[in-house]
Amino acid sequence: MDRKPDEATEAAWIGLSRAQRVATATIEARLKAAGLPPLSWYDALWELERAGEAGLRPFELERALLFEQYNLSRLADRLEKAGLVERRAVEADRRGQMLIITPAGRDLRRRMWAIYAPAIQEAVGDRLAAGEAATLAALLGKLA
Amino acid sequence: MDRKPDEATEAAWIGLSRAQRVATATIEARLKAAGLPPLSWYDALWELERAGEAGLRPFELERALLFEQYNLSRLADRLEKAGLVERRAVEADRRGQMLIITPAGRDLRRRMWAIYAPAIQEAVGDRLAAGEAATLAALLGKLA
DNA sequence: CGAAGGTTGATGCAGTTGCATGAAAATAGA
DNA sequence: TCTATTTTCATGCAACTGCATCAACCTTCG
C-alpha cells in the first residue's frame, strides 16, 4: 500500500488548509468589524433556527457542527447568557435538555447573515469562475 | 452587484469548512496518538528546515504560515524551549532575530513526517479518484 | 430485578489564542 | 539633522480550547 501522498494530494491538503484559513479570516474579520459574534455562533443559531420550535439536543447540535462536547456545552452557556437560546428540560430523558432559539437569537442570526453572505461571496464566489464553485463543492464533499 | 452567494458558492464554502475540519482532526489525532506535537510545529519546522542555515526572521515565518504575530512569537518560545529552534541575533537589524532549526528540530520534523504523510494520504488521497486531487488543488489555489 | 456498561452533559485546570499595548529600532520626510 | 511614522517583536490579561473526569441517567442483559 502506498502510504505517502503523491504531489497532487499534498498540494490539495496544503491548499485546503490555506484556503480555509484565508477565507475564514476574511469572513470573521467582516463579522468582527460589524460588531457581531463569531461564525460558531452563527452556525449554532442557524441549526437551531432550522430545527424550529422543537429545538435540538446538545448532542445533536454537537454532531451537526462537528464540535467537541465540552465546546458545545460552553457555547450553549454563552448563547443562553446572551439570551439567544433557551435551555429547556426534556421529559423523556432527564439527563438531557433541548436548546431552542429565541426571537433575539433569530434576529441576531439574520443580522449576521447580512454580513456573512457578502463575505462568502467576497471570499469564495468572487474568486471562482462560473461552474467552478460546484466542482469545488463536489470534491470537498468527498473529503467529509 | 450581487453580494449574496449563489447555491454552489455557499456549498463550496460549507464544504471547505467541513472538509478542512475533518481532515485536520484526523491528521492531528494521528500525531497525538504517536505522542507528537501539533501540526503548527511541523509547519514551522519545515519552513525553517527549507530555509537552511540562514534561518528565517520571525516576521517571514509569520507570513509564510499565515500566523498572527503574537502566536508566532509564542510558538517560537515553545520551539526554543523544546530545543528545536535557536534564536540568534541579527546584526543588520537590532530589533530582529533569526530562527534557525537545530538538529533536534530536523529530527523531530522527520519523525512527524513519518506519521503526517500517511495521515494526509488517509484523509485526502484515499478519498479522491485519480486526477481529482490536482483539480481540487487548483481550485483551492484560487481562494488563497 | 440489579449490576455493568453506555450516553448525556458539566466543569476544574492547564495550555493556547485574541486583543491591546508597549518597547526598541529602523525608516521617511521636513 | 531630528521628529514622525513604520516595522519588529514581546507580553499582561481575558477568553477560549483541550483534557480528564465526574455525576446523573438510561439501557442491556444475566
Automatic annotation (TrEMBL), chains A, B:
In its keyword annotation, does this UniProt entry include Transcription?
Answer: yes
Picking any one GO molecular function of the record gives: DNA binding
Q: PANTHER family from the xrefs?
A: TRANSCRIPTIONAL REGULATOR, MARR FAMILY, TRANSCRIPTIONAL REGULATORY PROTEIN
Q: What is this protein's name?
A: MarR family transcriptional regulator
Instruction: Cite the HTH marR-type domain residue spans from the record.
Output: 1-144
Q: Which GO terms describe its biological process?
A: response to stress
Q: Where are the transmembrane segments?
A: none
Instruction: List the Gene3D superfamilies hit by this protein, alphabetically.
Output: Winged helix-like DNA-binding domain superfamily/Winged helix DNA-binding domain
Top-rank taxon? Bacteria
Report the InterPro entries cross-referenced here: HTH_MarR-typ, MarR/SlyA-like, Tscrpt_reg_MarR-type_CS, WH-like_DNA-bd_sf, WH_DNA-bd_sf
| Keywords per UniProt | DNA-binding, Transcription, Transcription regulation
Q: Identify the PROSITE patterns for this entry.
A: HTH_MARR_1, HTH_MARR_2
Which Pfam families does the protein's record reference?
MarR_2 (PF12802)
Please name the source species: Allomesorhizobium camelthorni
